[in-house]
Specification:
Length: 569
């Protein structure tokens, strides 16, 4: 018995060994869902390759046909396994269930049945012949109509797989695109070789180079597994997260043309991904203000709020615009995150409306009380002029103090009301120091500060805090005061902004009550109000001076509530 052993057989044995090793790797990683169809593909390839090598080595036609019959299930499994891999790779594994998977094998099963019964109807192969090439004998199959139906089904599956893979070429992540290119190469190389064999386009018609091409496919997979984390860092996660996010996500290029948007963004804009792609973002969301389209760098971000009419109601959205890293996406652009803030906005509007009503009511009440106090004060003055009784004068003094206390309380309610009436804003520290010092008679006291480029996020009444600290220093520091200094330093993530003088300082017994309402020689409201103004944005104030060496008030500004202008967008 003569057994042929051509160089092609040697290549087949190498190719089959590579496929077998990859099948074992896939099986070891079967906990990763996509490894299961990958294992099926590699096992089918290995079986096809080794059996085809035996077919080429067989000495006669009957033996070749027998091996071909054994080999065919593996051959028919390969395109189906490819489709399964691409369904997993593109996040469509939901289509693979216990009920649907057998459906993909109906045509292969019928084809295999026709192959086994071919001697009775010759509809799969119409005949066989042998050819000699380079001293070796090869079996040539004459294809019947059912063979071409099988081939059509296989290539429809391959075409669908290629389309699915091609769709992943446009994801922003460079790693995912390289994985996709590897899969396309791994698909196209054996498919091309198979077409050459089926249509006998090569000068050696007896050779089916498809199993040999699997050697290149295996090497491509090996590179993908080692270099590009194939099947461990899949765009499946990107696809699932992108499509299932409740927030709307729009991806644009640097010219603000839409590259992609998720289903949530489609619902918000009323535009499908297909229709929106290539459009300027303001076309699908005309509510976006022009300021949001100003260029921003990777370290910046922008926030804008818009109103969008949906289903007869106004919905409010906060848009966060961030720069996409060119290293991560290989193309500059912007990511637009649309978060529904309708509930929060409505609560804010209701709160603003309630505050407006309360403010109006307190304003009217304050006005009426002030008028009554004016009348009471007038009668008080008249009564004092007419009274000659010393005891009555004493009562009138107490009455005058009570009227003045009421006036101070009324004034306090007005100031306290203003504290929460405006939203916090970023404010330049040095500018506030200059503005507040203009309202204080510093006399010969030197005011030193150097906080250029420094901003604090606080209530707009922050200027009153500095005014109060400067005013207190001039009133209570004593005649020895010569300087007031405003300095800044970092303490961990916090910023310490210190206002200190070189006066008499504050006694230990007074330190514990400094920020209490009513404590002090005048109204006792200055430091209390300062603490309330600062607390709105989480800033703390504390006194750390030494008695006899001067007072030191420290404003502890937490991370996120201070910034430098050179990092501001």
């Amino acid at each position: 018995m003569f057994i042929q052993f051509s160089p092609v057989v040697f290549l087949l044995l190498i190719s089959g060994s590579v496929s077998l090793v990859l099948a074992l790797i896939g099986w070891r990683n079967r906990a990763i869902p996509i490894s299961r169809p990958f294992t099926l593909l590699m096992a089918a390839e290995a079986a096809w390759i080794f059996l085809y090598a035996l077919e080429l080595m067989s000495p006669d036609i009957p033996t070749s046909l027998l091996i071909n019959d054994i080999e065919y299930p593996a051959l028919l499994t390969v395109p189906v396994a490819w489709l399964f891999i691409l369904l997993y790779f593109t996040g469509r594994e939901r289509y693979l269930t216990r009920k649907t998977v057998p459906l993909f094998f109906i045509v292969p099963a019928i084809s295999y049945l026709l192959l086994l019964t071919n001697p009775y109807h010759h509809l799969y192969y119409t005949g066989f012949s042998t050819v000699m090439y380079d001293g070796y004998q090869f079996l040539v199959y004459n294809h019947g109509p059912f063979f071409w139906i099988t081939i059509a089904y296989a290539y429809i599956i391959v075409l669908v797989s290629l389309i699915l893979a091609a769709g992943r070429l446009f994801v922003p992540n460079e790693l995912y695109r390289r994985q996709t290119i590897l899969l396309l190469c791994a698909s196209c190389i054996p498919a091309f070789c198979n077409l050459v064999y089926i249509f006998q386009l090569a000068p050696f018609p007896g050779y089916d180079l498809t199993p040999v091409a699997f050697l290149l496919t295996g090497l491509v997979f090996a590179v993908g597994l080692i270099r590009y984390q194939l099947f461990t860092a899949l765009p499946v996660a990107y696809s699932l997260v992108f499509s299932t996010m409740k927030e709307g996500v729009i991806v644009t290029d640097r010219l603000y043309r839409v590259m992609d948007l998720n289903p949530a963004a489609e619902a918000i804009t009323g535009s499908s991904s297909t229709a929106a792609t290539g459009q300027r973002v303001t076309v699908i969301l005309p509510q976006i203000p022009d300021g949001a389209l100003d260029p921003i760098t990777p370290l910046r971000e922008k926030r804008v709020e818009i109103q969008v009419p949906m289903e007869g109601h106004e919905r409010y959205y906060e848009i966060l615009v961030t720069h996409m890293d060119e290293n991560g996406s290989d193309r500059a652009g912007y990511l637009w995150l649309l978060r529904d803030i309708t509930d929060r906005k409505q609560a804010e509007l209701e709160l603003a409306s309630a505050n407006k009503k309360i403010t109006l009511l307190t304003s009217i009440t304050r006005h009426d009380i002030s008028n009554k106090l004016t009348v009471a004060g007038s009668y008080h003055l008249l009564a004092r002029r007419l009274s000659t009784d010393p005891l009555m004068s004493e009562y009138m003094d107490r009455e005058e103090k009570a009227i003045e206390a009421i006036r101070e309380q009324i004034a306090f309610t007005k100031v306290y009301e203003e504290i929460g009436s405006a939203a916090p804003v970023w404010q330049d520290v040095d500018s506030l120091i200059v503005q507040s010092s203009r309202h204080v008679d510093l006399k010969q006291v030197h005011l030193a500060y150097n906080n250029a480029g420094f901003e604090i996020y606080a209530n707009p009444m922050l200027e009153k805090v500095f005014y109060n600290l400067f005013d207190n220093a001039m009133k209570y520091a004593g005649p020895g005061i010569s300087a007031i200094r405003v300095t800044s330093s970092r303490q961990g993530d916090d910023l310490i902004l210190a206002v200190e003088d070189d006066g008499a300082g504050i006694s230990p017994e007074d330190k514990s009550r400094l920020f209490e309402r009513g404590f002090g020689k005048n109204t006792g409201l200055g430091l209390f109000l300062s603490r309330e103004i600062l607390s709105i944005t989480g800033i703390r104030i504390q006194e750390r001076g030494e008695p006899g060496k001067g007072a030191r008030f420290e404003l502890v500004v937490p991370k996120g509530k201070y910034r430098f202008r050179d990092t501001v967008s």
